[in-house]
Amino acid sequence: MKIDLLVTNVNVYNVYLKRFITGNAAIKNGRFLYIGARGTETFEAAKVIDGAGKYMIPGLVDIHLHIESTMVTPKTFSHGLIKNGVTTIVSEPHEMANVFGVEGVKEMIHASEGCTADILYAIPSSVPATPLETTGGEIDLVDIDELLQDERVICLGEIMNSVDVLRDPECKTNRILNHVRTNYPQLVIEGHTPKKLVDLELARFMFAGVDSDHTEQAVDSMRDRLANGMFLEIQEKSMTPDIMNVLIHEDVAELFCFITDDVMADTFVQNGHLNHLVKKAISMGMTPERAIYAATYTPARRMRLYDRGAIAPNKIADFVLLSDIEQFQIEAVFKHGRLAYEAGAAYEQERGERQFPPHFYKSVQLAALTGDDFRVAVEAVDGEHTCRVMEVINGTTNTNELHEQVRVENGVLNWQDSPYGLIATFERYGKNGNRAYGLITGNTIKHGAIATTYSHDNHNLLVVGHSPEDMALASNTVIADQGGFCVVKDGKVLAHIPLPVGGILSEEPFEEFGQAVKQLREAMESLGYEHYNPIMSLCTHSLPVSPALKLTDLGLIDVHAGQVVPLIVGID
Question: Is the per-residue pLDDT at 373 higher than 90?
Fold first, then answer.
């Protein structure tokens, strides 16, 4: 029997039995034909590979991530995925959708054509995430219908606005949920389910159609989710000892998988991708068989990708060869039965041409700023006033709301002489010219300034700092670059990364961009930022679905209440 590839003497991971079985694997036309004891006496292979006792596992499947979080193009992202054994992903491009609406989603899909990894897509369901921000685009019912005509679109992306889902039957999110459940009853619906949703509120959220969660977990609320049959997508920040203890010792293998969600380019280059989480799970006591299961079979089944996630007859021949199962040491990666990456062999990414329409490189419609733009005028009498202060906390992207005393002089908030920094945001799409201000403290910078147009999810210009002049310089550098990041101290630019595609993506090659992000992270830390992920921490200061106090162009947002609140307590 003629076949394309025969891999002999290899330990094949069987997802159905959850164990390794020594044997051979025959591949034809990009799919597995046979796994078992038969070898060259049965098959006439165009190529034979001696597995030499290595471990063969399915290509890893990551069903919840945002390519834009790595701030690179799909082509660059795919290049990084393959060397880390990830062969299929489901990306939700709600960052690009917030900038360009449905056109942004379609252009991300178009940019994925020809990538080695299979890049499938979720429809952004929450664009904008709430009505409490100005974005460049939005997604509504007509856009959902249009996108679902593309076979690469396989689910409805994370439902983020749980507050409105539960309190307002007529809100946009409920209209979307009702539309999808009525017209596309088989479509998978992904969820963003805050820890505070438990008991009846959790049940109501699930009753609305949301049956998964990828957010930061806590043991009690996680047990509540599992008991109700909610599917959990575990990202690294939820891989704490107490969470892992439940996943290791409870019979819940069918109810969770590992996902990356947001990966910074420097950690992607240095640590890897989904393979890093599998390796970490093993190091925390999960058996390799169980950890692999949660990165292959359960995510594929969750997304109804029944043609992958397993090594079995007629499944797509995406697989990884490992030399060390405990260390998860990747030796080679195959896509559709063809070698895509081999350790020790050349694996370089060529610098490509522009991949997006011309207007995607001209999305920042904002004039240059001056120090006066960081002068905070308030309608309050002179004297000490109680102000809301955003407290940044290491270990989470959530913030606290503090109430602290700050002096008002001649109708201006004297934040420069207070212990607090200033956070400001400027609408950058040329729609309304909105701007808003707040105070910030905690594990953030202690001097200098940082500016970025990569600010979840609205991607307006976000600036934090302790000097109006430094804040203006950082802002103007980003504006001149048509988007990006800039770190400034004492009038000097310490690091800046242009993100010219929609103000949120770079077209630089994987390794080079990873090094630039590493320098950016170090520059932020040099200003006193103390956080496990300072870039993501900063970027979520404007995310009005992430507790507790955030800032959009409409003002300070009390996330739990779902409303704008004044900077000075008691003054509307």
Answer: yes
